[in-house]
Amino acid sequence: MFRIQAEDERSGARAGVLRTAHGDLETPAFLPVATKGVVKTLTPDELRSIGAHGIIVNSFHFLLRGRDAVAKAGGIHEFMNWDRVIFTDCGGFQLIRKDFSFHLSDEGMSFKLPDGTPYLLDPSGSLRLQEEMGSDVAFSLDDCPQLGSSEKRTLLSMERTTTWAKESLVARESENTLLFGIVQGGGDAELREDHARTVAELEFDGFGIGGLGLGEPKETTMAMVEASLKGLPSASPKHLLGIGSPDDLGHYVSAGVDIFDSAFPARNARHGTFFADGESHDIRKRRFEGVTDPLEKGCRCYACGEFTAGYIHHLYREKEMLAMRLLSIHNLAAVETWLAETRVSLREGTFSRPVRV
Amino acid sequence: MFRIQAEDERSGARAGVLRTAHGDLETPAFLPVATKGVVKTLTPDELRSIGAHGIIVNSFHFLLRGRDAVAKAGGIHEFMNWDRVIFTDCGGFQLIRKDFSFHLSDEGMSFKLPDGTPYLLDPSGSLRLQEEMGSDVAFSLDDCPQLGSSEKRTLLSMERTTTWAKESLVARESENTLLFGIVQGGGDAELREDHARTVAELEFDGFGIGGLGLGEPKETTMAMVEASLKGLPSASPKHLLGIGSPDDLGHYVSAGVDIFDSAFPARNARHGTFFADGESHDIRKRRFEGVTDPLEKGCRCYACGEFTAGYIHHLYREKEMLAMRLLSIHNLAAVETWLAETRVSLREGTFSRPVRV
User: Fold this and answer.
1) Predicted-complex ipTM score
2) Can you state the angle between helices A218-231 and A246-255, rounded to 10 degrees?
3) What is the pTM of this model?
């Protein structure tokens, strides 16, 4: 399923291929976030033109709304009309970020569905949902503690996540859905490595590193990722959940992370920030008025090929949605291009960690 | 410049071609509205795929914002990256619809630019602006009275519009910009026809019928359009300004209108209404949940070719912008397709006025 094609000797970076029921995902890979079944503002054709081969959908969201519609369509791929790889998030992380009332127990997460019905989301139910959606890569339900939780709470989350991981593995039914286990362990390197070793012993197809990017200092995130990676098998694909700003990718690719997902590039685009020449820029700035160059010279994305920075500045100032579309295309393409070049450099043995996208 | 290719004997409908500096516009034609230099949510590529050959931009808006940027780009076509026909509205109509403070006199419209500078928009200045933008078809500045204005006010607006029309013709500089005169006359058929005859005597390349669609009853609009057409030369192209709902087109094409522009189809799309099988539908309705058919069976637009009504229903409920894009594409394509079929039927002598798009 996962084959490592090349490794950089000086760092832990590697290039590989994850084989899924909907084609290959070359790693290191970045998955644009399609929480509700759409990468905001964009079509699947645009994602293909950007070079994306995989996206991540939040299965939990479809539990609240759209589950029947996806089933009627024959799965999430058909529903969205996206024939490439789809990862599905189990939703533990989304729960704690949402202004959403739920109760956590050893059995799972209890809450009310929009129609008022009480619902218990347990490990097997979460996997059933993801398999039913036709996910290519599902995650076992985890108990993701808030930032700054006590050691007691962290230990409980590790224990539950482990128990749930085992239950998820037992509940597997679909051969088309790979299953990744999730590493927790809060902000303590020892607990992280410890939990990674525990989860690593289970028969997962890959591993997600969870519970990070919640607002902790970047040094903590980095240390926790490294501790998690230390406890995970080298041969398996590792997915750093929810992290992927242009500043982060170089570091974590070097550390050995294979897969990223993040709303950061597209959300920044919608807020007027675009990436060019290794920096972030604000399209609203007066200095872009009348500029006849593209957002980034040499960029081969649709936005840069067709439009000037001056036009996009005008659209953004006029609050035209097309501005958000074009900036989203550019930012996601910048990330995809950076990763494509990184994969080539790893295969050709010329990899050197760049500062940022 | 304008050639009539076929006429329907029983009605006044005709098919023709308007030759412009950016190619031919086959009539009857519908121009999607790109007030601020963009048909909301869409790219020029999407407009081409819809079958649009011309759009209409509001020159007045660029006076307030973006004029320099357009000049730096080399014109509005280059600015937007749209190489087909562009009409520019002179802005008289926009002024009265806007919550905008201005003073009207025989000289023109006085108001303050965003930087506070007092500005007088007069007929020659309006034309200069439109020519400078590289408009293919400009309109002479008109004095558009509010709905329900007195006869005195209507007569003044006609007189001013005529004087301004003459001044515009004198001010012409660009050979690449056709110039259309505007017919006013309020809600009085006699005044309408009278003003049409007056404007018709001037050397315009075509005529716009203005001051309608302001909220008056549909019967009034229809009567005023007919009275205006009666006073205009048969051989010239006639543009009904700002009107083009699916219900309207059949009637006005039959009456002899050649060109339409309206924000109606795209605005309705953004509000969740789409046109299919001769009716308007609300995508938010529960009955579209999980529907695996396209918005309209047999429709060849991108939205219908790629996505189900159930998916678009889901996107709209989730307030995803992609829903607005796809509905806009569908509605504009429905109008364009209807007009393309109408043109064929006129040329083949099989035209019969359909009830609606």
Assistant:
1) 0.96
2) 30
3) 0.96
